[in-house]
Amino acid sequence: MSSAREHWGSRTGFILAAAGSAVGLGNIWKYPSMAGQHGGAAFTLVYLLCILIVGLPILLAELSIGRSTQLNPVGAFKKLASNPRWAWVGFMGVASAFMILSFYSVVGGWTLKYTFVALTGGFNQLAADSTAATNYFTDFHTAPIAPLFWHLIFIGLCVFIIGRGVKKGIEQWSKVLMPVLLVILVILVIRGVTLDGAKAGLDFLFKPRWSDLDASGIAMALGHSFFTISLGMGTMITYGSYLHQESDLMKAGLWVVFLDTLIALLAGVAIFTAVFAQGQNPAEGPGLIFIVLPTLFPNIPGGFIFAPLFFFLLFVAALTSAISILEVVIAYNIDEKGWSRKRATYIFGGIVTMSGALVSLSLGDFNILAPLGITYFDFLDWTTSKYMLPLGGLLTAIFVIVKWGVPNYSREVFSKSFKDRVPDFAVTIVLIISALVVAFIILKEMIEIFI
Ligand code: TRP
Question: Which of 49, 396, 403, 405 is 20 to 30 A (C-alpha) from 198?
Answer without folding.
Answer: 49
